[in-house]
């Protein structure tokens, strides 16, 4: 009992010391790579980093900017990898956000990525991450800068520690697509809907949704355009009857028939434009439509009023807004699901690995649909 008491006392003292230290900014040995002095904050020494930014005139450039400063509750991350998502491309070129808010230019691009925590602005969780050189997947939110830079700042509560068995490539896409997929499944589960619709079904997110939904006994009707995209789904094991091509005659009739047969009461639309109105009008009675992208380059059209059978447009499914409206238990559940499915159902395949200098031209080509395949940015070795 004396030994046990001594261990408890030592542990209590250690935790007390750590907790006291955690209230101050802290930088680990890896922060020496920033400025050569672990005890001096990088922004005090005037150090800069490379970052990819978008400008109001439509340019995307690699520029030198100050290393971002983590405030209390935030961590500084040495970035390793970051994906190029459709939401990033939209953010780089469009005047407003998905939520129709005006943007301030220039925009630091990138909503997610992976790396190693090298510093903390204060707070016990961030302090422990920095002390342990924790590898993380991170969600990067404005106005704290983007993930397409050599360093980034994120809330300590919005990074997901990953094991060494999870590569930086896999960890880089742990938030935007996986959390959108899990939100889609969560919404359907709460409404006891067993079949859902998704447009751009052969996209990275579409394939994740197909794989993950099956674990929850939910069927997905995937809408795609063209034989190539239909084959991607077929090769992924999607039954032909669940692949609906929007570029063939009779699309609306086929869509309406399959939705009625499967009682598909929820549709998720990544296209927007005229597609949104078409989906809304042809869903079963009481169905609802959620938008989550603007691949057409347009806002949803034809959704201003309910459909003929009471179908409703629910607005944009923004993961950040959805999670903020949910109890903390939902975020904890999603974090567990992401960690357990990141290397399987929620995995992402990349076809291009780009240096920072190659990104501006690649992003411009995506804006005009000139290049296919998901790309990953190498931000540091």
Concise summary:
The chain is an alpha/beta fold and 381 residues long. It is built from 13 helices and 17 strands. Strands 1, 4, 6, 7, 8, 9, 16 and 17 form an 8-stranded mixed sheet that branches.
Any descriptors?
single chain, 381 residues, alpha/beta, 8-stranded mixed β-sheet, 6-stranded parallel β-sheet, 13 helices, 17 strands, 34% helix
Description:
Helices cover 34% and strands 22% of the residues. It has 381 residues and is of the alpha/beta class. The strands form three sheets. Strands 1, 4, 6, 7, 8, 9, 16 and 17 form an eight-stranded mixed β-sheet that branches. α13 links the parallel β16 and β17 (375-378). The chain is globular, with a radius of gyration of 23 Å. The protein starts with a helix and ends with a strand. 43% of the residues are buried. Mean pLDDT is 88; it is low at 4-13.
Percent of residues in helices:
25-40%
Strand content: 15-25%
Rg is: 23 Å
Biggest sheet, in brief? 8 strands, mixed
What does the oligomeric state look like here? single chain
Mean pLDDT across every amino acid position: 88
**Low-confidence residue ranges:** 4-13
| Tally of helical segments | 13
Please specify the SSE layout and strand pairing.
Elements (H helix, E strand, L loop, with lengths): L1 H20 L4 E2 L4 H4 L12 E7 L5 E7 L7 E10 L2 H8 L13 E2 L3 E9 L3 H8 L3 E5 L11 E5 L3 E3 L6 H4 L4 H15 L4 E5 L4 H12 L3 E6 L2 H9 L7 E3 L5 H12 L3 E4 L4 H9 L5 E4 L20 E5 L2 H6 L3 H14 L10 E3 L4 H9 L7 E4 L3
Parallel strand pairs: 10-11, 10-13, 11-12, 13-14, 14-15, 16-17
Antiparallel strand pairs: 1-6, 2-3, 2-5, 4-6, 4-8, 4-17, 6-7, 7-9
């Amino acid at each position: 009992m004396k030994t046990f008491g001594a261990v408890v006392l030592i542990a209590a003292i250690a935790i007390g010391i750590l907790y006291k230290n955690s209230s101050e900014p802290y930088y680990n040995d890896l922060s020496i790579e920033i400025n050569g002095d672990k005890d001096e904050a990088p922004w005090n020494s005037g150090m800069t980093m490379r970052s990819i930014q978008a400008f109001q005139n439509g340019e995307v450039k690699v520029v030198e900017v100050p290393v971002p400063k983590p405030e209390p509750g935030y961590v500084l991350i040495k970035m390793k990898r970051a994906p190029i998502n459709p939401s990033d491309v939209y953010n780089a070129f469009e005047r407003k956000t998905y939520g129709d808010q005006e943007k301030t230019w220039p925009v630091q691009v990138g909503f997610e990525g992976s790396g190693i925590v090298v510093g903390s602005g204060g707070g016990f969780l961030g302090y422990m991450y920095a002390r342990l050189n924790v590898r993380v997947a991170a969600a990067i939110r404005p106005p704290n800068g983007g993930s397409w830079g050599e360093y980034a700042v994120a809330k300590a509560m919005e990074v997901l520690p990953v094991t060494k068995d999870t590569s930086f490539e896999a960890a880089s896409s742990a938030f935007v697509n996986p959390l959108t997929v899990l939100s889609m499944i969560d919404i359907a589960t709460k409404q006891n809907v067993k079949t859902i619709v998704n447009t751009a079904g052969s996209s990275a997110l579409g394939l994740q949704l197909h794989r993950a939904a099956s674990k929850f006994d939910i069927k997905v009707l995937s809408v795609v355009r063209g034989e190539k995209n239909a084959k991607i789904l077929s090769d992924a094991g999607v039954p032909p009857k669940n692949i609906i091509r929007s570029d063939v005659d009779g699309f609306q009739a086929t869509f309406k028939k399959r939705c009625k047969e499967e009682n598909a009461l929820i549709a998720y639309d990544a296209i927007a434009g005229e597609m949104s109105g078409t989906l809304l009008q042809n869903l079963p009675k009481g169905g609802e439509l959620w938008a989550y992208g603007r691949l057409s380059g347009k806002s949803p059209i034809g959704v201003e009023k309910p459909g003929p059978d009471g179908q409703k447009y629910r607005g944009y499914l923004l993961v950040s807004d959805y999670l903020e409206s949910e109890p903390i238990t939902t975020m904890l559940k999603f974090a567990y699901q992401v960690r357990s499915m990141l290397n399987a159902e929620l995995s992402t395949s990349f076809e291009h690995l780009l240096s920072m200098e190659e990104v501006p031209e690649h992003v411009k080509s995506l804006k005009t649909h000139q290049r296919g395949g998901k790309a990953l940015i190498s931000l540091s070795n």
